[in-house]
Amino acid sequence: MLYPRKLKQGDRVAVVSPSGGLPEVFPIPFDHGLRRLRDEFGLVTVETPTTRRMGATPEERAADITAAFADPSVQAIVAAIGGDDQITVIPHLDDEVIRRNPKPFFGYSDNTNLLAHLWRLGIVSYHGGSVMVQFGRGGAMHPITKASLRAAFFTSGPFELTESPEYGDVEQDWEDPEFVNGAPLMSECGGWIWHNADRVVEGATWGGNLEILHWMLAADRDIAAPEAYAGMVLIVETSEEMPSATEVFRMLRNLGERGILGRFAAVVCGRAKAWSFENGNGPEEKARYAREQREAILRALAVYAPEALVVFDVDFGHTDPQVVIPYGGLMRVDGPARKITVVY
């Protein structure tokens, strides 16, 4: 696996919308995120033709991604946001161009498609950091998110992940002009939850959003032979669509029946997002949803990977704050010390 070179102040960063041009619909958080990239990270942002255009075809979006990799003046690529149809974009990428011009790519959620594709091409990418959510957060960026993104952008070597004493999953109104000044609602939370934590596992990461992995499995898209995952660390998290515990179990069971789930030496699970505009759960409902999801994951692992080291409630998914995970890069999960270290 190749780690692309790191950024420096003044570098140009292409902002792409691989899953759809939501910046056209919600310009407030998008423009706020662009300002942060420029003012707080010292980077020059470059938009592609489809970045702010809803309805762009998969071919057009793929052309923008390929062009961003090919452009010698661009040093990194950041997704504006996720979506739900990036799986239709991946076949139209020019893999030879991407191989010849490896660059760090940042995104999560539906961008799991591109993260996994880059892994198949031998390029380390980064799970996390979309313009409209992490950079475009109302109020100030969360300090844990900001520190992780800064380290992933500009530094190499080990970075120890931080347990957050608070988290948020209540979404802000992106159409409210006062959005940029209002901090999101945060709640106290417990620390990471460990299972089979009597060992240390060090390996490359693979995974991402569980629902997208399930779609990729159905389409047989960027899924390797089971032996390719031996000794790796599976990272999984769920989205604002809030799949039921039953569905989470079934999706993992399918990975198990494919012969993949049992190959992982460790499984690191993102904190469950348990609120959306459609499901405005209160504290008790949130706690129940998260607990049932943990139980479903352990039930699947008991069948297919009973010896795996497991950590729950790590902040790398759809909740706030969000730490960046190198995708295909190294992660050390130290059970006795209760520490997780990644290599950026």
Automatic annotation (TrEMBL):
CDD domains: Peptidase_S66_mccF_like
Domain spans labelled LD-carboxypeptidase C-terminal: 202-332
Keywords: Carboxypeptidase, Hydrolase, Protease
All copies of domain LD-carboxypeptidase N-terminal, residue ranges: 13-128
InterPro entries: Carboxypeptidase_A_C_sf, Class_I_gatase-like, LdcA_N, Peptidase_S66_N, Peptidase_S66C, S66_fam
GO MF entry, a single one: carboxypeptidase activity
Protein origin, superkingdom: Bacteria
Bilayer-crossing regions: none
Family indicated by similarity: Belongs to the peptidase S66 family.
Listed name of the protein: LD-carboxypeptidase
Species per Swiss-Prot/TrEMBL record: Herbidospora galbida
